[in-house]
Amino acid sequence: MDHSDIAGLRSVRTRSISPENFDGAAGGGGRATEGTGRAASRDLGVGWKVSPSVVVKAGDTFDLASIDGPGKITHIWITTHSDNWRTLVLRAYWDGAAEPAVEVPYGDFFCNGWGVFAQVDSQVIAANPHGGFNSYWPMPFRDGALLTVENTSVVDVVVYYQVTYEERDEPGDDAYFHAQWRRSNVLESATTHTILEGVEGHGHYVGTYLAWGVNSNGWWGEGELKFYFDDDDEYPTICGTGTEDYFGGAWNFDVPGQGYTEFSTPYLGMPQVIRPDGLYISQQRFGMYRWHLPDPIVFHERMSKIDVQALGWRSGWRYLPLQDDIASTAVFYLDRPVANRPAAPDADAMEVHLGTAPVPDIGAQPPRAPQG
C-alpha cells in the first residue's frame, strides 16, 4: 500500500499468523492451551502467552504460514538466536507452486548474513536489537501462500514469529515476490560472482544484499556490477563504476581517521563491518544492501544475468582480481510464481567460518532462558 493512500478505506481484511494463531482465523488468537509458554503461564491460564514460539526440530521444515485464496503478506517479524541465522532456510511458495520463489538463508534475507548482529534501518528490511528481524516487502498472491523455515542444523531451534497479511475477495494482477541466494566461497580467480541469472518473464529487479568476506589485504571493492537483460548479449545495459558506488558510498567507505564506516539509509547501506580481533577472527567481513524501490530495473523478456567483479589493486596501479567469499541475495518481482533458481542452500554451503574457538566439553549446561 502506498503510504500516500493511508487514509483510503479498503475492502481487504487483515489477518495475522503466529504461534498464538497458527491459521490466522478471525478471533482465533490467544486460545492456546499448550505451547512453549505453558509452564510460565501456569498461574494465569489461557490467553496469557501460552504459545509464543515454536520449536523446529533438527533437520525438519516448519510451516510458518499457510494461507488459502488471494491476498498479500504485508509484514513479517521473526526472531531466533544468532547461532541459527545461517542454519535456517526461509522459503516462500505462491499459488500452490511446487518450487519456492524465495529460498534464502534466514540471516541473509534480513541483511544479517554473518551470524553477528547489525542494525538495519531501511525501507523494507529492519533489523533491530537483538535480532528482531522485520520484512515489509509486499508479497502478493492469487491463490494461496506458504512460508516455511528449514532447520539444517543438528540442534533444535526456537523461533518466534508473526506474519501479517491481507485477505482479498478477488485476486489482483500484481507480480510475484522472489528472492534467491548464491555464494562463491572462494571466488575463482579472474571470474565474476553471479547474483542472478536465467530469469525469464516480465518483471523488475528491486534489491541486492551482499555478505562479502575479504581474503587478502588492501581494498576489495573496485569491481563493477553489471545487469544484462532483454536484448543484452555480450555487453550489459547497466554497468556500474565500482562496488562501493553501487551501494551508495565512495572512496572505500573510508571516513578519514575512522576507516570503514557503517551506514544504513532507507534504500542503501553498509550496516556491517566485522573487523579482525587479533586472534581467531582474521579476515574482514562486510554486509551491504541496495533496494531499487524508487529506481527499479524493469525487464520485459528476461533478466539474463547480474554479476559483480571482485577487484583490488596491485603494483603499477593495476587491478588485482580477488578470491573472496561472496554471498548474494537477489530480490525481484516477476509475472510468474516460479523462476530459474540455483541449487538449494545446504548447511555446508551456508556455514560461516568466523574463527571462533571450539568450546570444551565440560558437561551439561543450563538451558538458555526463553526469549520473547
List keywords for this structure.
372 residues, mainly beta, Jelly Rolls, eleven-stranded mixed beta sheet, eight-stranded antiparallel beta sheet, 3 helices, 3% helix, disordered C terminus
Distance between the termini: 29 Å
Number of helices: 3
Please, what is the CATH homologous superfamily? Protein of unknown function DUF2961
Which fold name corresponds to the CATH topology?
Jelly Rolls
Question: Secondary-structure element order, as H and E?
Answer: EEEEEEHEEEEEEEEEEEHEEEEEEEEEEH
Strand content: 35-45%
The main β sheet shows up as: 11 strands, mixed
Categorize the overall geometry: globular
Helix proportion: under 10%
Secondary structural class: mainly beta
The CATH C-level class name: Mainly Beta
Describe this structure in words.
There is one protein chain. With 372 residues, this protein is mostly beta strands. The protein has a single domain, classed as Protein of unknown function DUF2961 (Jelly Rolls, Sandwich), CATH 2.60.120. Helix content is 3%, strand content 40%. The protein has 3 helices and 27 strands. Strands 3, 5, 6, 11, 13, 15, 20, 21, 22, 23 and 27 form an 11-stranded mixed beta sheet that branches. A hairpin with an 8-residue loop joins β16 and β17. The chain is globular. The two termini are 29 Å apart. The C terminus is likely disordered.
